[in-house]
Amino acid sequence: MSSAMRLGGVALLVLLGLGGCTDGRSPAAQAPPGPHDSMGSLPSQPPSGSPSEASPGQRNSDGSLKQLPPGPPSRPPQTLVMRYDDFGPQALAGTLLGAEWWQWAAGGSWEIDDRFDVRVVVYRGIDREQVAAEYPTVEGRADYRYVTYDEALEHFDRAIVDIEGVPELARLRAELIASRSDLVRAMGPRP
Known about the structure:
Blueprint (H helix, E strand, L loop, with lengths): L2 H15 L61 E5 L6 H8 L20 E6 L4 H7 L8 E6 H14 L7 H18 L4
Parallel strand pairs: 2-3
Antiparallel strand pairs: 1-2
């Protein structure tokens, strides 16, 4: 398959996955940015009150919270907690991370303004079981996906190359480059 055909297929898939958002952001990323630190990890404190105080605007159409309670912090250079959106829209990141909705839900019937606080733990030098024990997925409280450092870098490198030269995806490409840079800055370069 020619690189032009491969690029065309990836670009079309990503554009369709953006749901018409041609500025390169997924619908979830259209919302104002949350209080994330400069490394893209999740805040140590939620932006508002407790889950019981959440207003309807802070809940998804199924009643679940858009912003889950804070979890354990990143521990660079062994772990870095990132957002699903840091890896691009579901059309680009889904193969690596799975669907961009709660893993405990059947999914597929969400409203356009629903957002899912799916967190991705990039890890290096420790076992996945250790990572899952420290960052457990608990229904209604935390949804983590686990990716090795090498898998994350390979994803970013491949995605950045695949969408290069597609003007509609220039912003997305810049965001992926920034996410990759944040990852390397936090966890260090490959040995």
